[in-house]
Amino acid sequence: MAVANMARGRGRWGLVVLLLGHVLAWSSMSAFSAPTRRTLVAGGATVGVATGAPPVVAEETPLKSAWPAKDGVQFMRFYEDQYDAERDDTRRTPQFIQAIQERVKGREGLTVLDIGTGPFALFALVAARAGAKKVYAVEGNPEAAERARNTIAEQEDVPEGVIEVIEGFSTAVTLPEKVDLVCAEIVGAFATQENICATIQDAQRRHMKDASNPQNYIPSVVQSWTAPVSYALHPVLSPKFEKLQGQPLTLNPRDRTLELISDPQVLEEINFAKSLPEGKQSKSLSFKVSRDRLRANYDAYYEALTTKEEVKAEDAKPLATQTTKSFSGMAIWPRLILDPEGKIVVESRGPLGEHQKSHWPTLLTLMSPSPVPIEPEDVLKITETTELSKGDILVPVKYSFQGTLTSGSA
User: Is there a domain that residue 8 lies in?
Assistant: First the structure.
């Protein structure tokens, strides 16, 4: 959806002029006293925006969002830029290469299944060069599968027949034999959004010799991390909120218009050597708004406005303050642990949610039409529910967030 992706890769304050137009509207929120900062206006008006009618005060602000993971089934399409970005991701590819080499080394006669091999058959080639006896490189996209065959044929150091490209989804093909090791980098920005659970469950039943051995999976564990955030462009999106239809924004993880207001926590953790989740899953988390993070966020917003956008200090200060003291929604990003010992880790953001380069976007699910005012020590309680598909990997995973924001002074 164009609206949902409008902020992808921006990483700048390109809409600062529009944002400045919201300063006056936002300033009305700062006039509320602490107990009335989060107010619900009768008749379904926007949370936290003053109107002519007196606000109905509530101790808690209800928040919610829900969406099907449409991006999770887009692996059926061929995206050249996406494949290039994955290959060139220095926080991903070298770590996978190391994990594959270490896992294959010394295991004579090893057979490997590479799920989603892509046009470069990159991990299949690594496994073959590391000494794997046979690698089945499965690819569901016809164009990518054909490119993979051509790529493998061009490699003079890989004997013919060691790598066999099989076109189709791993859940729909039958391998000539069962394998020792499964490599599956089919992890979305929300770790489960590409139906990795259903895919691995099928591989365990039909493709693997020993599904109980943690050494037989790369990655060993995949996680989704989440944290509440402020988002500087949220006021601009408010008129388009309904058009989003719940779909999250996909942001560049270096985008400084998004800042965490609390430390991140693990939302999902999938350990492939253990029982995998099925059906509906729920998890509740509690976050306290961090005074230190708000202080650092203000400094970052103010500097960006005054240096990069050359906004006057008298305009930048209120905008930076209003943006800093606001909650927009929940950010989600993946983390992959490639080995059972936890020594080889792929971080799409920093360990504390820091901005950094990655081919994985950070998802932002807006939980209110407009930013909700916050103060340090406020408490955000979130319950996330995931509805995993039952076997059919083309059925989108469904996600929803429900939550309340409570004043820390209450």
Answer: no
